[in-house]
Amino acid sequence: MKYFGTDGIRGKAYVTLTESLAKKVGKSLSLLECKKVIIGYDTRESNHMLADSIAKGAKSVGKEVIDIGVIPTPGLCYNSILYKCLGVMITASHNPYQDNGIKIFFDGVKIKDEDELRIEEFIDSNNDEIFDNYDGKIIQDTTLVKNYINFLVSKIKPSNLRIGLDLANGATSLIGEEIFKNSSNELVVDANIPNGCNINFNVGSTHIENISKIVKDNNLDVGFAFDGDGDRILAVDEDGISHSGDELIFIIAKYLKEKNMLVNNHVVLTIMSNLGIISSLKKNGIDVSLTTVGDRNVLLEMQKNNYIIGGENSGHIIQLNHLSTGDGMLSAIIVLNIMAELNKSLKELTNELEIWPDKLVNLKVKDKRIASDERIQSKVKEILDKHKDKIQLVIRASGTENLLRISCCAESESFVKETIDNFIKLVQIIDAEVK
Fold first, then answer.
1. For 360-369, b where at least 16 C-beta lie within 10 A, e where not — what string?
2. Is-catalytic flag, 93?
3. Which residues, in sequence order, are CB contacts of 316 under 8 Å at separation 6+?
4. What predicted TM-score, i.e. pTM, was given to this entire model?
5. N or C: which end of the chain has fewer CB within 10 A?
6. Active-site hit among 93, 205, 244, 398
7. Residue pLDDT, tens place only, 353-393
8. CA–CA dist 243, 341 (Å, integer)
9. What does the pLDDT look like over 78-88, one tens digit per residue?
């Protein structure tokens, strides 16, 4: 697609994501039948420019727009479910503040590919001129955020755990402490003072070292780090050791199975998941299916087969028995509930996990489309055919940046390193040919 990637429209604010584009996106919502549109955003300084422009465009085609202010992506989704309406989330997730993005939902789920294509065609064939439409309106109602807060608080079981939170100066900053004080009176909260430019800056789930230090310095039991829009989570145990999204999925899935609550005895992961964790799930009698990268692909597999838990190693965890999108705070609450009920630490809950050596390299390139180059793909196939299910090897283009993500997982650490190094050299040779 021209505008939409794996997670909505992404780009540099004021450069590719402009007032003009945002107005066209707002007008394009006329293609979608629901009259009500709610708009939310994270804490980037460019959000108001985009939100105002989208709202004006939507109003001009007769939509009723509600600006609900700063809210995590899952909070916007929750409200779009409550009101059975369209939702527009303005965020670039874990990216730096200069980036921004637009995600469009209906009834808590991202709109379909065919709707995104229709919107792209609309953008290219329409101007950004808007006229007053008395059937449309724009209001601000930040009280809708309370709906989401109440939803999360209803899931909490109080505990005596000492908890650390890194809120990434993002969308969870304004409500994280209010929510988690219901879980414990012993909270240490960091990165909760956004200024428009500090979202994800040396904090959050992409800088796990921050929450690790907080946990160790304050002698806490567990720590959680969120991304900019609050739909992902990573955790650290009492020793400051990090635990991936897949590891948290293992904890939740194993608990559900023991309680006879794991519907169809199945978990959905992606091709980026650690093979050792997949092996550990199977040893616990839990079936696993793998999808290509992207929470949408995970959700489709779950909905198709009536599975209730799945997600990505990056910390995007979907629990369909609660919500139809990844939710970092919800996942933290569920893990805390399990820790308290079983009286086990995060370390104890993951001590049986097999973690095979793996490595992910993000390689800057001139053109990320070289990921499909025949020389790269044939080499990947050769290695996978030779080692069968003893290796995981994925080379894919970033959905938002000119990066190639090279990922390898195998039982031998030296083999992983050698494989990654060889592909870095191959990619650099091919990228050097790009003019």
1. ebebebeebe
2. yes
3. 231, 232, 245, 295, 298, 326
4. 0.91
5. C
6. 93
7. 989 998 999 999 999 999 999 999 999 999 999 998 789 99
8. 20
9. 999 999 999 99
